Amino acid sequence: MKCKKVLEIVLREMTAYGKGYRISWLGFDGRSLRAQLNEIDTWARQALAGEINCDFTSGTLFLEEKKEDGF
Is 52 buried (19+), middle (13-18) or exposed (0-12) by CB count in 10 A? Predict the structure, then answer.
């Protein structure tokens, strides 16, 4: 996957995580955030290496869950 596309996805997903936590800090802990950021890192490295060619949507899904929870 091209670097620009990977960067666009990483930035989108990081922003989504931030917005999700801004909606509600309930259940937040640093270990969860670290795991989420590590997941983005792993995906990005694999995408750049050509090992995978798919979108990454965990942050987007996290944000949607927070919205659905009514916060």
Answer: middle
pTM summary value: 0.89
Q: Could you tell me which of 50, 42, 45, 21 has the C-alpha nearest to residue 33?
A: 21
- pLDDT tens for 3-57 read 999 999 999 999 999 999 999 888 788 999 999 999 999 999 999 999 998 999 9
Distance CA 14, CA 20 (A): 10
1, 48 Cβ separation under 8 angstroms: yes
Q: For residue 27, what pLDDT is reported?
A: 76
Report whether 47 contacts 8 (CB < 8 A): no
Burial class (CB in 10 A: 0-12, 13-18, 19+), 14: middle
